[in-house]
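batch_manifest entry 22 of 60
target: NACHT domain-containing protein
source organism: Petrolisthes cinctipes
requested by: lab member K.T.
priority: normal
notes from requester: please return tokens only, no post-processing; we will run our own comparison against the previous entry in this batch. if the run fails, retry once and flag.
--- input ---
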Amino acid sequence: MSLSKMKYGCKVLMNLEAAAKEVMKIVLIWGTPGKDPKEDIITYVKRLDPSTSKTNYVLEDKKSHPKLDNTQKEKVKNDSSCDTFDITLLLIFIKLCCMKMAHLNDAAWFSDGDELENLLYQIKKAQYNAMHESLEITKTEFKEKTKKLRKDLIATLTKAKERFGRSDTELKKEINNIEVAMKRITEEPLDLDDFLRYYHSDFQEHIISRMADQLKQHMDTKHIKPLSFLTTNKVWLQLDKIYTKIKFMEGRLEGKEKNVDHPDLIKLVQGKSTKPQVLVVEGLAGSGKTTLVEQMTKKWSNGSNDSIRGLNEYKLLLTVWCRDSHLSSYSDLVDFLFQPSTPEYKELLPKLIKESSLLVIIDGIDEVNESSRKLIRDILDQMQGNSKCTVMFTTRPEALQEGLQLIPNTYYRVEVELVGIPMGQRKDFLHRYLDELHKACPGTTPTPPTTDDINQCIKQLDVERKEHFRLPLNLSIVAILMYSWPDKMNRNTTQTELYYYIHELTLEKLEKRLIDNDLTKDFGRRKRLDKVENWLSAMYCEMFIALTHDQLTLQEESVNKLRYKCVTLDLPPDEMMAAFMETRTIKGLRGVDLDCYSVPHKDFQERYGALYIIQCKNKLKKRKKSENVKQIMLTTAGIGELKIPKMQNLLQMLVGMIPHDWNFIMVKEVVNLLQEAGVNRRAQWLDIIEDTKCTDDVLKVIIDHIPLSGASIGPRDDDDDLPTPQDDDLPTLRDDDDDLPTARNDDDDLPTARDDDDDLPTPQDDDDDDDDDFLRCEGDYGPIEINDRRIEAYRKLLCHLPRKYVELNITGDPASLNCLLASLDRHVCIEFNLWQIYYHPTADIHPDVDQLLRKVWSPDLRSYAGQLSDYVLSRLQRVHSLRRIYLSISSNHQATFFMELITSTSFKDLEYLNVVVTSEVLPAAITTNIPDKDHIGVYVSLLDVTDERVSWACEMVANLIKPSQGGYIIGFLRSTLDEAGWIRMIQDLGRRGVKNIRYMEVPDTSISSDQLDRISPICRSTLGAELYRKKFNYWKK
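--- output ---
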């Protein structure tokens, strides 16, 4: 489509709207001489005298009058001047209300000629043709159409003057007005708003489609570059081959957290409001925010809708990288992306784009600078009012509030947290990453790791359990180290050490290249390393300065300083710069715009900044001078005020690198700064402890800041009981009218009769990261709860804490607790829940259970989850404070232990007993009913009941519970019975005397809601039980 030609077409429409419409309005006014300017046209015509009026409104049958739509009726009612009437509406009332006009159905209204009716018809016909024909006309065609229209309009006015007896002066005045208006439209440049009022919708579709095609052609998102400075060749990995779905959480800040399915990310906001939408994605450094952006860009560019639903509903996708500083306005962005490839539409594009269905992704609010901040504000301002626009922010937690402040309240907003790669997917991610590395750079390592090597390393690192390995960046570093330096890592490798090893690997590769370089090949090793260290000190400084000025790419001045430093040290500048940085090329569709040096990830720049601070402190320490960290940062940055929250990740790295010879005051200063930077949640402190090898001094200072629950308890006295939590803090039975008594509050995962999800007791979700739950405060004596993900953090922390109550909730291999035992010696374990053993029972109990219980057992134990052995039985029999027991029985031998437990224990404090029996247990092994205790809530579950095992299940239930006792809940986990099978089960239980069951729960996969409605009355009348469909999530095979 030609814009210049369309402009001429628009001018034709403008002439019709301005000049032609004005002529028709004049005709209407001249033809209704008695109309009061303040009355609407209908009121006027209704008051005409039928006996004298010569109007068609009076003379013609009302049934033949043109019908008005609601919009036209509103215009007539509200506009006595007729200014807002269009040509169609004006013509209707000229026909009806003007005197001496031809009848409504007269042929003059529908044919060419030189009568007034003919001329009015030709004006209407010209408007119709202009609206429905192509707007693309040449300048010559425009002149011809304008000349004809001018002639028709003058003729129309002349005939109207004659018909309605108007004066020559009036005619001359109106003709002059029309000619002035048409001349102005012809000669003046077309205003953008005027053009956009007239263009056809297919023109907008054409332009937007063309822009989308150009964006997609230039989106280089098929590959990612993984720390390419580690190799001499450019290494690009296929994004699709290594991308892993990551976990999102919504509502964590409001305390209403829930998982968000990766494909439904955009659907959280898309179409949810008549306002434009903002989706804020918060995630820790290295959690995969930028890779998510790249993946979304790739999926949009190839039209895929599989990994992120709703992406293909956006006609355009614009990406803004906050680290870039070359754009500062929305028009800059559009010009950068689309000029001069579309110079003809330059003026139109900003408006066309912002009114289209649009996704704008703004990556890295934590990296925002002065220019990009202006750009973001302008984008958000321009998009207001477009409900088809979605803006997605990504940000680190420390910059979240800054990002939220940028968003006007005219936007619909949703915030989600990017948690990282869930457990169970990390091993697969590493294998695929390493496979791509091997394909991309074959021969760069003498002996690439085998699959067995990789699996061994993954097991040794405990990748699936440790918190810092949920971050994709850390796993990427692990993959690179596995490929190049596999012997450097072990079970205790922290996040800080990962970056240290990458740095060491970089130096090793650099040294090899310097040995082969003509400029440095004759240096001795010590001399060469000293020069490199000297240059690195300068680089650390420049990196820190750039960071404090919100710059992730080095400015020209910094690059020149580093290059000059190389010259003074006789080092090759290109080799040195390329060893630690990568060259970023900022591209628009116009081609290459800017080349600059930057680190591959902000984490590396922050690490360099932390190393700079340590160097400064060490130099001052040697000179016996004192200057605090904040002063060093301010002096180096050359700014009056430092944004401490933006330094949070740098300070976390600094904490992990504090030398052992720093005194306590220096350590305390850094940790205090970390709190000032926004580290105040338990999860944040525990991350720092786990991600670093903190010195003892650091741990001691952190203990003063971390909000651990639980008061200290005094030295153990074997003759006295330890203080117990207040009654209000302990789980209590509900009233008889309530649902099943549970051992925890409604937020916990213990069974309830109402919850549609898995009603069995469960540990917290392994992938969650809200340690406020794991360190919950229960009054003044609340225990510390430890789960798998925090074993390493508490291994370091517990030995520095006063005596505490501890709850162990382990969902993985119980052997992982072995490293924690020494730290637990001084504390009292009151919960010992081995959920993996409970959910995955075996005939032979896990070999480590007895040994672990021997180490952690205390007579104050309140909860046990797992299986029974001879030793476990003997320990539980000695505990009189047990309140919750979760047992899986998977052999006749274990059933014997269970019989002994329930017959030899008083259960005076027991509140909840959950027993799961597998199909390997014979009913004859159950020789005693579970005791009839009013204060105990009993949940009996049978595993894997099939049609062939209905009789076994019924006999087992009858043996476990007293037939008419009541108060039980019975559940059937992983059962495959159909409707007929459940009816048979219920009837068989009834024949065996099982009555007054409170609830019976069956898998939601076995029957439908309709089938539930049919079976429920049978269950109620036979067993006295309510029947529920449940999602037994934790019991899936």
